[in-house]
Amino acid sequence: MIPYSRQQIFDADIKAVVDVLKSDWLTQGPAVSRFEGALADYCKTPYAVAVNSATSALHIACKALGLGPGDFLWTSPNTFVASANCALYCGASVDFVDIDPSTYNMSVEALAAKLIQSEKLGRLPKIVVPVHFAGQSCDMRAIRALADRYGFNIIEDASHAVGGQYLGEPIGGCQYSDITVLSFHPVKIITTGEGGMALTRNADLHHRMAMLRSHGITRDSGQMSEQPHGAWYYEQIDLGFNFRMTDIHAALGWSQLKVLGQFIERRRHLADRYDKRLKELPLQLPVCIPESHSALHLYVVRVRSESGRDRREVFEALRAKGIGVNVHYIPVHRQPYYRKLGFKAGDFPEAERYYEEAISLPLYPALDLTQQDFVIQSLQSCFPRV
Ligand SMILES: *Cc1c(COP(=O)(O)O)cnc(C)c1O
């Protein structure tokens, strides 16, 4: 089976992990600090907090921003459930903003319209989570302008987008947001096995997230309520978690970061080949906006109903040939858990229409051209010329 995505591990990655295994530290230690520093430099932002998943990063990001009962968090329905669940972990409520039908990112027009309505109802969001779908940035300038007007915080879910750019700057730089979250799950751009990162320019948010990842404990005497009793002394000053990344995972991430540029170039090359060779087919291909240089986590084609084929037919024909196509995403509000919260079919029609038509084709650095040609030919054979 050719998967839709997978990791690529080099000998240098293996050596970096083995070096940690032979060292004194296994859990969060010097390799975590080194990875945080390297990623913060790469993204041109001062602070990075490594954790055991992007889900944990979203959770501590919401907590650090003070999200709690009575508050609303808004995100895109076209995302992985974690972008919404983080609000529920904090006792807050979730709502969604429909997507733009060409980029599949949160629609700024829909966001602006929903803010006007919500202001009248006194239910403005505390946090908005734009998701950089498939690695292409949302319209962050416009979302920032709305945040300044309505007073919400922004967490960018850049789980797909490390290595991508927006207006010539690396995604993760937080010029338009309070916090940016990355994922290092093996299907994403670079991997640590499991892992995530929260980036910020704000020293206070950095402190709070660093504490929340490790039980809410501080060893900084400046933050303690008592004089330290001795060198062993620490204080728990908040209710945190154990979301730490291990040095073993961090060493892998640090080593992978060195080939991030190469990974993105390879994804770009493969995406260009798909663009050229699929343009004759009755498919809607990904739209690239000039403001963003996508990290190309996903290559999604839409099987338009006008094509006379339906998505499921095409999906099953490709799977039958051993091509591990996938679908990103089932709109979050259509999940049974969210239906129980009151969401229903028809609430976010663009995300639902998109979902009916989307297929993610294999795209990852180790996909070779013969495999890609096989995917292309298999897709062509789904649409015989009449
Ligand atoms: C993968 C993903 C997450 C969750 O990442 P984990 O590291 O697996 O917790 C969150 N949001 C989006 C958009 C994702 O794709």
Can you offer a commentary on this structure?
Helix content is 37%, strand content 15%. The protein is of the alpha/beta class. Helix 4 links the parallel strand 3 and strand 4. The protein is globular and about 80 Å long. The protein binds pyridoxal-5'-phosphate.
Topology:
Elements: E1 2-3, H1 11-21, H2 30-43, E2 47-51, H3 54-64, E3 72-75, H4 82-89, E4 93-96, H5 108-121, E5 127-129, H6 140-150, E6 153-157, E7 165-166, E8 169-170, E9 179-183, E10 196-200, H7 203-212, E11 217-218, E12 235-236, H8 247-257, H9 260-278, E13 283-284, E14 292-293, E15 299-303, H10 311-320, E16 323-324, H11 336-339, H12 349-357, E17 358-361, H13 369-380
Parallel strand pairs: 1-16, 3-4, 3-5, 5-6, 6-9
Antiparallel strand pairs: 2-10, 7-8, 7-14, 9-10, 11-12, 13-15, 15-17
Bound molecules: pyridoxal-5'-phosphate.
Residues 53-55, 79-80, 82-83, 131, 157, 159-160, 183, 185, 196 line the site of pyridoxal-5'-phosphate.
Characteristic key phrases:
386 residues, 7-stranded mixed beta sheet, 3-stranded antiparallel beta sheet, globular, binds pyridoxal-5'-phosphate
- Classify the secondary structure makeup into a structural class: alpha/beta
DSSP helical segment count: 13
Helical coverage, percent range = 25-40%
Q: Numbering strands along the chain, what is their spatial order in the largest sheet?
A: 2-10-9-6-5-3-4
Low-confidence stretches: none
What small molecules does the structure contain? pyridoxal-5'-phosphate
Biggest pleated sheet: 7 strands, mixed
* Helix-strand string: EHHEHEHEHEHEEEEEHEEHHEEEHEHHEH
How far apart, in Å, are the first and last alpha carbons?
A: 30 Å
Count of beta strands:
17
Radius of gyration, in angstroms, nearest whole number: 22 Å
Strand content: 5-15%
Report the mean per-residue pLDDT as an integer.
97
What is the overall shape?
Answer: globular
